[in-house]
Amino acid sequence: MSLDTPQAGTCRERLTAHEARQRLEHERTSRVTQLQAIDEAGSAAEEGVMSAQKDTIQRVLTEVEAAFARVQDGSYGICRSCSKPIPVERLEILPYTPFCVPCQRNTV
């Protein structure tokens, strides 16, 4: 099934490429806004905490960019570990994830 072709019926197996891009764009915008807020609120007393937050946000931004590349190459929504489709419900919550839940548990 194509990424752009929604599954018939009430339960969809995959997000369309347009839906995936919209969700990823929202994630990217949110993370960039968070980074800007951290930079504007920076104080020496909280430097360590803010640095950790910035590192986490940067990691997520890297994952978002990798997800955009997967949309482009047609592998978005397919688990990088087991090659099975990632449930659309998971992608709606965490649109940049490269793994299904069972495989994610195995990587941690």
Q: Briefly, what is this?
A:
With 108 residues, this protein is mostly helical.
Features:
108 residues, 4 helices, disordered N terminus, mainly alpha
Describe the secondary structure blueprint for this structure.
Blueprint: H1 17-41, H2 47-73, H3 88-93, H4 101-107
Helix pairs in contact: 1-2
Query: If helices are DSSP runs of H or I spanning 4 or more residues, what is the number of helices?
Result: 4
Question: Any idea what the radius of gyration is?
Answer: 16 Å
- Gross geometry: globular
Characterize the largest beta sheet: strand count, sense, and whether it forms a barrel. none
Mean of the pLDDT scores? 85
> Which regions have little confidence, pLDDT < 50, spanning 5+ residues?
1-10
- Give the structural class: mainly alpha
* SSE sequence, one letter per element: HHHH
Distance between the termini: 30 Å
Q: Name the helicity range.
A: 55-70%
Q: Using DSSP, what is the number of strands?
A: 0
Strand content: under 5%
Descriptive account of the structure:
This protein is an all-alpha fold and 108 residues long. The protein has a domain at 17-76. 60% of the residues lie in helices and 0% in strands. Helix 1 packs antiparallel against helix 2 (47-73). The longest helix is centred in the middle third of the chain and has 27 residues, at 47-73. It is globular, with a radius of gyration of 16 Å. The two termini are 30 Å apart.
